[in-house]
Design a protein that fits this description.
Chain lengths: 378, 227
């Protein structure tokens, strides 16, 4: 085929062209495919296809003891292993009726809010990268994220696969020096958020690119079960930290930022504002943390046999409502283990946000959903 | 004014660019492998087996109880128990692993083997530059590759190792005290037997049992894991 013939292959007016975006496409944040039907540049249909990274997470957890599922939860949303741990141990604690010492609760809040901060910093970096701000914002975001990961490493031993929480508490205690390091770091974080926001918030190109794009109406967001920053960007005041008050979240004063339009710009700003609230929570948690045990002394980690029954533990992970549903039949391993992954459920609404948009906007709409394929496919 | 936001953003990049020369906080990375960040003490990578004394494979603390093999989430540990026994550090007869393999290409560095080990025999290492050209055999570590000395452990995890050594010293002291108590009880029993009084022998037995204090080593396999 000559070059001239190739050029004439483009679709004529009114013709529908099918494009398979992904699975190996840098904008899809992993192995994820979108079957897009285009009329010119306009999207007329979009079908998300996922499952490429399916690793049988639920069945593996059902075949192992309760303890051995914890390291696997690290690998769900591999950017936020601490919050994944928390969701799972919360479900086991509900199932087996395990109390958690106060110090452990505070440590959990500290690591969870640090996780939220680094997830949002990373997400905003990636989102801006998707919009064409190549490299620079992502580099700044990862520079700060790295500092938080260093703290995780000196606490739990690993940067990302922390495997830190246990039902009945946390695995190792944090030292006074570690808390001091966190204190110093969060003293510097507000400056980073300010700069990061000033970098592109008022940028005219970015505003033209994101405002009114990928709008998710309030009713649709509620009906589709969307949670997390994405739901709040559509103006729904729903934060599980406020609704359930799990852990010790009832002791902290913080606000839940809400958006007005539910477009990509709102979702971007939502992450920036949540980072600020996370810093507020961290300051309060570091002020109030007291000495004490970090593990419930009666809990048996190995060979835990909860009574027959079921429990659903849910937390506000950085991406939305992360829930673990466990059914016990009184044996060593869960009879049923089910994950409610926030990024997958937030992703199901992608078509409705993209219809009628340009194909380039699909990329940033997807970027603003904040997905991690490890959690979508499990 | 149109373009104000862009200029504002460019000022930020300028601040970060020039700031990176004076402020360490703004530096993004180090030039690995010439420069390296020091690893924190808690950092972990893959498990190794601890040995006491000078002979790596003979001095292994592992008693082949196979708890780690059962609890390992990705099931990357393979242990075969020995036929005979040998004395451990408190002098108790224990099995030892005839085969102890860890497939490091499967291991996910979760540290659960370390947590469940009641004998302080397995710990996490810090080495991470482990690439090999041998795809299957190169990352299947046997006893020989896994055995590391207690001195090495003290070097990489000083705080943790100190705690562990303290605990073992206590156990040893308790075991010795128990052995001494048993010896005196035996002597007393012998003396009582020669005197012909059965009641004193019974009380001597009771005393030796109480003198034990903590159990020197908890015997495993109380629970079974369904695969």
């Amino acid at each position: 085929m000559s070059v001239d013939e190739m050029v004439t292959l483009e679709a004529g007016p009114g013709e529908i062209m099918e494009v398979s975006m992904g699975p190996h496409h840098p904008s899809t944040h992993g192995v994820f495919r979108m079957d897009v039907r285009l009329e010119g540049e306009r999207v007329v249909r979009l079908k998300p296809v996922f499952g490429y990274l399916h690793r049988n997470h639920e069945k593996i957890a059902e075949h192992g003891a309760y303890l051995s599922a914890i390291p696997y939860t690290d690998r769900l949303d591999y950017l936020c292993s601490m919050t994944n741990n928390w969701g799972y141990v919360l479900a086991v604690e509900k199932l087996a009726g395990i109390p958690v010492p106060e110090r452990a609760e505070y440590i959990r809040v500290i690591v969870a809010e640090l996780t939220r901060f680094q997830n949002h910093a990373g997400l905003v970096g990636f989102l801006l990268q998707d919009m064409g701000a190549s490299g620079t914002p992502l580099m700044y975001a990862f520079r700060e994220r790295e500092k938080i990961l260093d703290l995780f490493e000196s606490l739990s031993g690993a940067r990302m696969m922390c495997n830190y929480m246990r039902f009945g508490g946390v695995r190792v205690d944090c030292s006074a020096e570690w808390l001091e390091e966190v204190r110093q770091l969060i003293g510097r974080l507000p400056r980073f958020v300010d700069e990061f926001e000033a970098l592109l918030r008022a940028n005219e190109i970015l505003m033209a690119r994101t405002q009114g794009v990928g709008v998710l109406p309030r009713e649709l967001a509620i009906n589709a079960g969307v949670t997390g920053p994405m739901l709040r960007a559509s103006g729904v005041n729903y934060d599980i930290r406020k609704v359930d008050k799990y852990g010790v979240y009832d002791r902290f004063e913080f606000q839940v930022p809400l958006g007005d339009h539910g477009d990509v710009y709102d979702r971007y700003m939502m992450r920036i504002l949540e980072m600020r609230e996370s810093v507020k929570i961290l300051e309060q948690a570091l002020r109030d943390i007291s000495d004490g045990p970090i593990m419930d002394p009666k809990t048996r980690l190995r060979g835990l046999r909860p009574k027959a029954g079921e429990a659903y533990g849910r937390i506000e992970s950085p991406k939305g409502e992360l829930g673990f549903f466990l059914v016990s039949d009184g044996t060593m391993n869960p009879y049923r283990y089910r994950v409610r992954p926030p990024s997958m459920i937030n992703l199901t609404i992608l078509e409705d946000m993209c219809l009628g948009q340009n194909v380039a906007d699909v990329v940033i709409t997807l970027g603003s959903v904040d997905i991690v394929l490890g959690e979508v496919d499990r | 004014m149109l373009g104000e936001g862009i200029i504002q953003g460019l000022l930020e990049t300028a601040r970060n660019f020039f700031g990176s020369y004076v402020e360490k906080d703004r530096l993004v990375t180090v030039q690995y492998p010439e420069q390296r960040h020091p690893l924190p003490e808690a950092s972990r990578n893959f498990p190794f087996l601890l040995y006491d004394g000078s002979e790596p494979e003979a001095g292994l603390r592992c008693v082949a109880c196979q708890i780690c093999e059962k609890e390992c989430p990705p099931r990357c540990i393979h242990i075969e128990k020995s036929k005979d026994k040998k004395p451990d550090f408190v002098g108790k007869q224990q099995f030892y692993p005839a085969v102890f393999n860890i497939d490091v290409s499967v291991c996910m560095s979760c540290q659960i083997c370390v947590e469940v080990c009641p004998f302080d025999a397995i710990r996490m290492d810090k080495v991470f530059e482990l690439s090999t050209s041998n795809r299957f055999g190169g990352l299947l570590w046997t006893k020989r590759e896994l055995a590391k000395s207690n001195e090495y452990y003290q070097k990489i995890h000083p705080t943790e190792a100190a705690e562990c050594d303290d605990r073992r010293e206590k156990e040893l002291a308790e075991a010795q005290a128990k052995a001494a108590a048993a010896a005196t009880a035996k002597a007393a029993q012998a003396a009582a037997a020669t005197a012909g009084a059965g009641t004193s022998a019974a009380s001597a037995n009771g005393a030796s049992g109480n003198g034990a204090g903590a159990k020197p080593a908890e015997v495993p396999a109380k629970t079974t894991v369904t695969p």
